[in-house]
């Protein structure tokens, strides 16, 4: 991590270049050290963060854990940062692997605070409805004592609104559909392995199983929230129903018996 002041047209901006490590624990330590970015100065943080913000920022390979992504987004929200718009292909990184192991992702980010966003020219291109708001604060509001805090709050609330909409639509809104599709794919791959085993099919089977586990955890979270919401009305019976549903789902993705091409039957111990 390298941090320094950049002065342009009498405007001082504190710029930090980061290259985050692959290890989640080390990255989290970096986030904690950068929490100090919550300040009234112009702030820009950019570089390779080695993590994505949403599932849409990666294709192929092993998916990132939801907890790791949540930690990154939580740090961004805590610091009151916002993304700088980019041009071109957003999947700027590839692991160079072949077949199903190949993965594309957006690991590089440029983040700025609300104070800096009032001065960068890119904000003037955001659309007619937003321009008067920014110009008004730049000319008048920024002179008022304490208005910067209100600007940061408004930006954070707007980001929360957008993220909640996207989260509800793209995560919990499609969980059952994703689980059903992955279960069907897993069944097809299992039959394919039994009929004609290959390393490529086995690798795809493992990747699909891991992806299914991720979506199963999301469904468990949704069911837990629904059970908690209904518990006040239905009591403990609703909690027992939740655990029964989760147990049945876990049982459905377990391979307990497999028959090889030569007729040998492999069974997992009970």
Automatic annotation (TrEMBL):
Domain of life: Eukaryota
Alphabetical list of InterPro entries matching this protein: Endo/exonu/phosph_ase_sf
SUPFAM superfamilies named among the record's database cross-references: DNase I-like
Name assigned to this protein: Uncharacterized protein
Naturally occurring in which organism (per UniProt): Juglans regia (English walnut)
């Amino acid at each position: 991590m390298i941090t320094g002041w950049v002065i342009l047209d009498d405007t001082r901006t504190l710029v930090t270049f980061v290259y985050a490590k692959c290890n989640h624990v080390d990255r989290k330590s970096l986030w904690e050290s950068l929490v100090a970015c919550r300040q009234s100065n112009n702030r820009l943080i950019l570089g390779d963060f080695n993590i994505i913000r949403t599932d849409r920022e990666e294709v192929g390979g092993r998916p990132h854990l939801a907890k790791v992504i949540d930690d990154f987004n939580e740090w961004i929200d805590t610091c009151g940062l916002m993304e700088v718009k980019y041009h071109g292909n957003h999947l700027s990184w590839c692991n160079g692997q072949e077949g199903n192991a190949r993965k594309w992702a957006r690991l590089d980010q440029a983040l700025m605070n609300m104070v800096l966003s009032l001065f960068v020219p890119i904000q003037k291109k955001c659309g007619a409805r937003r321009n008067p708001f920014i110009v008004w604060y730049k000319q008048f509001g920024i002179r008022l004592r304490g208005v910067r805090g209100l600007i940061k709050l408004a930006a954070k609330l707007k980001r929360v609104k957008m993220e909640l909409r996207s989260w509800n639509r793209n995560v919990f809104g499609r969980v059952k559909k994703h689980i059903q599709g992955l279960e069907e794919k897993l069944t097809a791959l299992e039959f394919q392995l039994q009929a004609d085993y290959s390393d490529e099919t086995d690798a795809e089977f493992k990747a699909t199983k891991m992806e299914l586990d991720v979506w199963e955890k999301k469904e468990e979270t949704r069911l837990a929230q629904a059970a908690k919401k209904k518990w006040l009305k239905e009591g403990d019976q609703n909690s027992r129903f939740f655990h029964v549903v989760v147990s049945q789902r876990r049982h459905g993705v377990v391979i307990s018996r497999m028959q090889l091409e030569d007729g040998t039957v492999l069974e997992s111990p009970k």
